[in-house]
Write a structure and sequence with these properties.
With about 450 residues, the chain is mainly α. It has 16 helices and no strands. About 80% of the residues lie in helices and about 0% in strands. The chain has one domain.
Amino acid sequence: MINRIRITREERPVCRQIMKLTLPIILQNLLSAAVNSADVVMLNFVGQAHISAVSLATQYASVLFMVLYGLGTGVTMLSAQYFGRGDLRAVEAVEGIALRFSVAVSALLAAAALLIPEQMMRVFTPDPELIEIGAQYLRNVSAAYLCWGLIEIYLATLRSIGRVGISTALNTTAFLLNILLNAVFIFGLFGAPKLGAAGVALATSISRITELVLALVVSGRSRDVKLKLSCMFIRSRALFRDFLRMAMPATLNDVSWGLAFSMYSVIIGQFLGTDMVAANSFTSLVRNFGTVLCFSVASGGGILLGHLLGNGRLEEAEQGAKVLMKLTVLSGIAGGLVVLACIPPVLRFASLTDTGRGYLKGMLLINTYYVMGQAVNTTLIAGIFRAGGDSRFGFVCDTIDMWCYAVPLGFLAAAVLKLPPLVVYFLLCTDEFVKWPWVFRHYRSRKWLRNITRENVLDT
């Protein structure tokens, strides 16, 4: 097994190229996970109800993230290949198309969070206390949603042309500010009011607004691509059709997967009790750290493959994909070890009931191997396949897996059979492994290995 995943001397140059793109993304993802950790760590001193409420309320942010991530990977899918081809005007046009969708979706969610937060919380829980706390959180975080829609598309465009350092620097500033402001508004430092969960949301909004301002400053000095709304009005019927045909399945894939994953929270919140909800908050936190490396490898590798494919270097792209898979397996093993190492300190720190602590230990043990399933599927579906414009397979595969298998199984186990909570959670965590046979077969078919760029695309 070790020999099969060993990086050979011939593969080392490709490995170095992937890691050059991956390392800034690792830092960015680590900081993102650190912000989520800071939320849970600081709210731990406020109470279990605040942890549970924020955990449920942030499911909407998770869905928005999936929309923006899908649009961003659509941007990467097309822009990386056009950048490999040397067509920066097409890259700007792709950015503009994505902005049309991202601004509309983020504005809609921001309006809902501001106007009907109580109704949004009732989707996840009937508990009046959690609804009240969660509604305060949603109102205060609504501004962040709107900014996020602009920022993520611009950062995705920067990453697609290899400017991962700039993207990481902007995210780093926002994340560090978020952590600082979390402490200020949760604990009432420097004369600020103690706001609890609402303080977490306010800190998020201020940091996102700051990040948007910095992005505009960077954009004004950029020679490559800029964050400007005028990009939304660049017209190309051929490029728009390509975006709908390739990027929209990627977006729908991530939205479908994100909504289904949010349904896991509905199942836990409605049928398994507040102890499981609180334990799931800590579990998600640790799993985020466990998947940082493998998700970053998938992103960096996908960008490199896109550049190679757009430049017509198909054989090099195929060899690069093989190296990427080896790195993914290694990163998945590392992620499982990270989760395992986190179990003792997390159990000591978490302010949970004895029942909740028992749930937390079992859920973390399940995630020691679950991260491998996420690592492999993310690299193949969101990295390798999308680099060649193949997003439809992932959409169909994930939709069938999540909505025809995992979600119905979870409701059946929790609501009908009333199985023990940890058994329900274990069944939910089989979703990644069920689709492996189809995913690997599609990888071996080489249908994803293609150049998707067009000549004179802005003239059509």
